[in-house]
Amino acid sequence: MDAPALPFAKMHGCGNDYVVVDAFHHDVTDPAALARAVCARRTGVGSDGLLLALPGESAPLRMRMFNVDGSEAEMCGNGLRCLVKFALERGLVPWAEGGEVETRAGRLTWTAHADAGDDGRPQVDEVTVRMGRPELERARIPMAGPAGRVVDEILDLGGSPLPITAVSMGNPHAVTFVDDVGAVDLPVVGPRVERNEAFPNRTNTEFVQVISRGEVLQRTWERGCGETEACGTGACAVAVAGVLTGRTDRDLLIHLRGGDLRVTWEEEAEGGQVRMRGPAVEVFEGTWPLGWA
Fold first, then answer.
1. What angle do CA 122, 128, 132 make, to 5 degrees?
2. Backbone angles phi, psi at 236, to 5 degrees
3. CATH of 5-131+279-289, one of 3.40.1190.20, 3.40.50.300, 3.10.310.10, 3.40.50.2000
4. Cβ atoms within 10 A of the Cβ of 168, count?
5. Is 204 in a helix, a strand, or coil?
């Protein structure tokens, strides 16, 4: 008799890739262990994280996201777009052009941008997510130190000062602006920022090169993952940090290693939320043998 297996889809948003599981119909008893096994690049499927699509308590859909190391993240912007596409196209939630999804960072709204597929059913190509209002107070990041905002503040990396702007998009980010993102030794600097004692929950780190007031380049060191092709919440944090430091406008085209995102930080009179639009792509489907963690 064949061993039971767990169906999944491999998906990505701007190269930020995920293993996505229908947890409406399949029970995942140890998602942390599954994430460590299935996300492994050499011995598993290989991805930046594991996404579980679940029914929400007050919304039709809920997302849980686990990093490569098994830690659970509060939010994941690129993953959220993939989750919406996955849930809509598989009928886990009723088809709609927009809706809400529950995350550990709160309830967020989304809009699907779709075309008719070969079978006549809608196929989601891009998703816009209203990512909520950024948290800017130090204690809300969270980050150690006196009350107030962290804008171009020097972070001590053991003799190597780094100016950062701290933003939470439901998860913590330290954004730093540099002359050349390609010159950053990210495997060295990234972990030192991620695990700096100033961040009790660790942090994601974005290095940003400004091209113009409406366009930037971004590289990201993700907490629990390492360098990734893209980071949606990181792109949102970059847009906010650009405005706070006077380097960019509120509507920003962000070039990441895996593709482009359009991010807008609304004026306070419009609600002050951050909107992110970008692609969601399904690569293939497969099954993972149960019992392999």
1. 145
2. -65, -45
3. 3.10.310.10
4. 26
5. strand
pTM of the model: 0.88
Q: CA-to-CA distance for 140 and 170, rounded, in angstroms? A: 9
The rounded distance, in Å, linking the Cα atoms of 21 and 191 is: 29
Reply yes or no on whether the pLDDT at 276 is more than 70. yes
Please check the confidence at residue 2 and state whether its pLDDT lies above 80. no
The C-alpha atoms of residue 18 and residue 15 are separated, in whole angstroms, by: 9
Q: What is the pLDDT of residues 116-135, one digit of tens each?
A: 666 667 799 999 999 999 99
Burial class (CB in 10 A: 0-12, 13-18, 19+), 116: exposed
DSSP 230: -
Residue 40 · residue 225 · CB < 8 Å = no
pLDDT tens digits for range 44-87: 999 999 999 999 999 999 999 999 999 999 888 999 999 999 99
Q: How many CA atoms lie within 13 A of 243 on its CB side?
A: 20
When pLDDT is cut at 50, 70 and 90, the band that residue 1 belongs to is very low
Residues that are catalytic: 76, 231
Superfamily of domain 138-272: Diaminopimelate Epimerase; Chain A, domain 1 (3.10.310.10)
Cα separation, 233 vs 224, in Å, equals 15
- Quote the pLDDT of residue 58: 93
How far is residue 257 from each of residues 4, 13, 219, measured CA to CA in Å?
37, 11, 7
- What's the Rg (C-alpha) of the chain? 19
Residue 209 near residue 237 (C-beta atoms within 8 A): no
Angstrom distance (rounded) from CA 211 to CA 61? 38
DSSP state of 109: E
